[in-house]
Amino acid sequence: FTPYCPLQNVAADFPPTLLLHGENDTDVPYEQSVLMAAEFAKHGVEHAFVSIPDGAHGFDWAMDKPLVKDAFQDVLKFLNKHMGAS
């Protein structure tokens, strides 16, 4: 399964990547993002990892929550940095 495993396919030319993960995600283990961030760092890939305390899978459904608003600000900053403002 190596060709389909993101952790096994990180290289220095991997594109800048933003990870957002809820610490209480029951669908995708939080540790997967921790491992991915470590792999990015190991290969010098520009990345950001936004950890959402008490966040579940789909934490972003409640846009009125300050934590979600803050996370989306992080997304916008990352996109503006790597794609430029339009």
Folded structure, characterized:
The protein is of the alpha+beta class. The protein has one domain (2-83): Alpha/Beta hydrolase fold, catalytic domain (Rossmann fold), CATH 3.40.50.1820. It is 37% helix and 14% strand. The chain contains 2 helices and 2 strands. It has helices at 30-43, 66-83, and strands spanning 17-22, 47-52. Strands 1-2 form a two-stranded parallel ribbon. The chain is flat, with a radius of gyration of 14 Å. The chain starts with 16 loop residues before the first strand and ends with a helix. The model has no long low-confidence stretch (mean pLDDT 92).
Q: Would you summarize the structure shown here?
A:
With about 90 residues, the protein is α+β, with helices and mostly antiparallel strands.
Strand order of the largest sheet: 1-2
N- and C-termini, Cα separation = 38 Å
The fold-level CATH name is Rossmann fold
What structural category characterises the helix and strand content? Answer: alpha+beta
Helix content: 25-40%
Shape: flat
Annotate the secondary structure layout:
Blueprint: E1 17-22, H1 30-43, E2 47-52, H2 66-83
Parallel strand pairs: 1-2
